Amino acid sequence: MVEFTQSLKVQPVWKQSVGSAAIFTFSPVVAGDSVFAAAADGTVTRINAANGTVAWRISAGTRLTAGAGSDGNTVAVAGRKALCWRLTARAKKSGRRKLPARSCRLRL
Asked: Model's pTM, two decimal places?
């Protein structure tokens, strides 16, 4: 086994609560200077990556099962029954689609 010697002191710069995942697994995504996160209750949050402040927090209007995905301009989240929502990075709902399969594929 290789011996590890700590060379840097690491500590959190900021911490932000974004809600519960319930029985699902949600992972935040970094896009540009923002962190996008979703929660099972339908909350979608945009956080300033530099300082951890909330830029906006909105409700998708339904419970979510997956998300968030983002390219920095568009945010995608998914709910039950293969419903997917597209939001702009400025917190405006810009599309909703029911997919035939249980996967979410939205054109960003």
From this structure: 0.76
